[in-house]
Specification:
This protein is an alpha+beta fold. Helix content is 34%, strand content 23%. It is globular, with a radius of gyration of 15 Å.
Length: 140
């Protein structure tokens, strides 16, 4: 196992231990940022995640949301925002959030841990960017 994978895995475990159920993403993001993760690029519906870290890139393959040929949903900003708010309030699981994002026409998203933003993209150049709050993590 590479140093990049070990560091990323350890940071995710730390984040899981301190992350509140409601509003937990900023805690995960800050833990990853402190561990040297710069960006996280997701591709939907493949559920493929590329982490760009100070120790090197790491690819994680999740369970795909769909298989075979399919129509891409039309980008729906309001449906995406609804999925975000549901997730932020602790009313959905991460897999449910990914599925709702895909149904809202998101084909990829980009988490920038330095700028503290997440940009969501549709297949025709549509884009929605949301900033997330900075949090203090005292137990590092």
């Amino acid at each position: 196992m590479s140093k990049a994978i070990e560091n990323l895995t350890s940071a995710m475990e730390r984040a899981s231990a301190i992350r509140p159920k409601v509003g937990g993403f900023p805690y995960l993001a800050e833990t990853l940022r402190k561990a040297g993760v710069i960006r996280n690029l997701w591709t939907l519906p493949a559920s493929q995640s590329l982490f760009l870290t100070n120790d090197g890139p790491v690819m994680m393959q999740g369970e795909p949301l769909a298989k075979g040929a399919m129509d891409v949903p039309t980008f729906d900003k309001e449906a995406l925002i609804s999925a975000l708010r549901k997730d932020q309030s602790g009313e959905s699981t991460f897999p449910e959030f990914l599925a709702a994002s895909w149904r809202a026409g998101v084909i990829r998203y980009d988490v920038d841990f330095i700028a503290r933003t997440v940009a969501y993209y549709g297949c025709n150049g549509e884009k929605y960017v949301e900033a997330y709050s900075q949090v203090e993590i005292t137990s590092w």
